[in-house]
Specification:
One of its GO terms (molecular function) is serine-type endopeptidase activity. This is Ubiquitin-associated domain-containing protein 2. The chain crosses the membrane at residues 92-110, 116-143, 164-188. It is a multi-pass membrane protein. The protein has helices spanning 14-32, 45-50, 56-59, 67-79, 82-87, 89-118, 132-136, 138-144, 163-173, 179-194, 200-203, 208-217, 219-222, 239-269, 275-278, 308-316, 321-330, 335-344, and strands spanning 43-44, 125-126, 149-152, 158-160, 290-291, 294-295. Among the domains are: 14-149 and 160-223, Rhomboid-like fold; 305-344, Ubiquitin-associated (UBA) domain (Helicase, Ruva Protein, domain 3). Strand 5 and strand 6 form a beta hairpin. The longest helix has 31 residues, at 239-269. The strands form 3 sheets. The protein has a two-stranded antiparallel ribbon with strand order 1-2. The protein has a two-stranded antiparallel ribbon with strand order 3-4. The chain has a two-stranded antiparallel ribbon with strand order 5-6. Helices cover 58% and strands 4% of the residues. Helix 17 packs across helix 18 (335-344). The chain is mainly alpha-helical.
């Protein structure tokens, strides 16, 4: 079963790796060794507004002071690393920067609205950490990652490949009293940036020279090697389950290697490739009949019909129509398998 977030590891996701390591290490350092320094990283909008402590907008919105928030946000960043692989580190960083800046503005507006409408001043002390951009990433996650049903429970309720991510986001959403303000700010800022509202994606973006500088200096530090194709089998499983998992793994590896070979041949020849030859398990095999000692002409099976709805969903994710058709035909119209292969290649 492929997950919605692609292969394991942080390959081609150096920014996601840095966001996992650096803030988490600083959160642990503040919680265990330097608790007296935590007051410098409190996200206090009252101090920003009345005492002009602008630096709190930076320090208070990078490092989580609650270790539960650190754990949940780190897991979400790891699952959202798929967007860095798809868009590239520069575009992914621009999205995080844009949502981080916009969410600070929405935090101010929501806190002022709470104080004006209900007289609640305690809402000025919001949860610290890099939380708003994490909530903002739920917008492209909801819009661009296909929903594939895994299991069905209690009639209309079903478990999909995205259920665990939503549960994790709900856990983060309910971890504090006023974290819902940060969550709403993040979701609204993510919606504004993803929909290119008011052209904010052109204003709040990472310049090319800065992207090249960090690519030259920091990317070698946080880059990860390409994961091996061999997956470890879960311990405690029975021998039959291990054999079944091994066979499924080998079958996926064979299919993907044949798919990659077919794409290279199509690029070299400039035409369509024979999917019946490359994927005999996924097609009706040609039968050779012998009648009266004479070999009959092999019947060519009709091409597999591909759902236009699934093709449209893959094209909305940024893939070309040709690649979408090839992936769906190769995976026997399995949208989850086709999506994960296109994301990894």
């Amino acid at each position: 079963m492929f997950t919605s977030t692609g292969s394991s590891g942080l390959y081609k996701a150096p920014l996601s790796k840095s966001l996992l390591l650096v803030p988490s290490a600083l959160s642990l350092l503040l919680a265990l060794l330097l608790p007296h320094c935590q007051k410098l990283f409190v996200y206090d909008l009252h101090a920003v507004k009345n005492d002009f402590q602008i630096w709190r907008l930076i320090c208070g919105r990078i490092i989580c002071l609650d270790l539960k928030d650190t754990f949940c946000s780190s897991l979400l960043i790891y699952n959202f690393r798929i967007f860095e692989r798809r868009y590239g580190s520069r575009k992914f960083a621009s999205f995080l920067l844009g949502s981080w800046v916009l969410s600070a503005l929405f935090d101010f507006l929501l806190v002022e609205a709470m104080q004006y409408s209900f007289g609640i001043t305690a809402a000025s002390n919001l949860p610290s950490g890099f939380l708003a951009p994490v909530f903002a990433l739920f917008v492209p996650f909801y819009c661009s990652i296909p929903r594939v049903q895994v299991a069905q429970i209690l009639g209309p309720l079903s478990i999909t490949n995205k259920t665990l991510i939503y549960i994790l986001g709900l856990q983060l959403f309910t971890s504090g009293s006023y974290i819902w303000i940060v969550a709403i700010s993040g979701l609204v800022s993510g919606l504004c940036y993803d929909s290119k509202m008011f052209q904010v994606h052109q204003v709040l973006c990472i310049p090319s020279w800065m992207a090249k500088f960090f690519s030259w200096t920091l990317e070698p530090i946080f880059s990860s090697s390409e994961p091996t194709s061999e997956a470890r089998i879960g311990m405690g499983a029975t021998l039959d389950i291990q054999r079944q998992q091994r066979m499924e793994l080998l079958d996926r590896q064979l299919m993907f290697s044949q798919f990659a070979q077919g794409r290279r041949q199509r690029q070299q020849q400039g035409g369509m490739i024979n999917w019946n030859r490359l994927f005999p398990p996924l097609r009706q095999r040609q039968n050779v009949n012998y009648q009266g000692g004479q070999q009959s002409e092999p019947a060519v099976p009709p091409p597999l019909e591909v759902s236009e709805e699934q093709v449209a969903r893959l094209m909305e994710m940024g893939f070309s129509r040709g690649d979408a058709l090839e992936a769906l035909r190769a995976s026997n119209n399995d949208l989850n398998v086709a999506t994960n292969f296109l994301l990894q290649h």
